[in-house]
Amino acid sequence: xxxxxxxxxxxxxxASINNAGIDFYVPEFDTxxxxxxxxxNEGYLAFYNQTFSIKPGQRIFIPSGIKVQVPCGYVLIxxxxxxxxxxxxxxxxxxVIDDNYQKEIYLSIINLSDRNFLMRVGDKLLQFILVKIGxxxxxxxxxxxxxxxxxxxxxxxxxxxxxxxxxxx
Length: 169
Fold this sequence. Notes:
The protein is mostly beta strands and about 170 residues long. The protein has one domain: Distorted Sandwich (Deoxyuridine 5'-Triphosphate Nucleotidohydrolase, Chain A). About 10% of the residues lie in helices and about 30% in strands. The longest helix has 10 residues, at about 30-40. The protein starts with a strand and ends in a 37-residue tail after the last strand.
């Protein structure tokens, strides 16, 4: 996947070759970044000394400083970092970046805690995972034709009533 930096920001990285996620970082707070942050976010944003504060319950959009060329047949999807949501109650809001998207990626997060959360330049914010997509055509059928394909019954899911011995109604 090709990546271009359009702001002063650390290049997205993988912590190790076997990790699924590509870590994205908070860009440097130059004049254009601050202008763009204020333009796309409502309410109070406190910036000081390359740090900004996110109030409890506040959702913000952060220009990532990154453009990507997602390979054909793939999609880039955001996910939380494993430690940040549990430690600080900061959650990533979903993003799906299709292979035809050509603008700067904006990151969105929400502070679900009861106190301000401080973010600094260079902090790992979230991760993207590059996912191969299959055919996702939508074909309308009657409800009687909906489940007529045989599936491997050995792969019983947690919701399967036979697995849990739930009587059928």
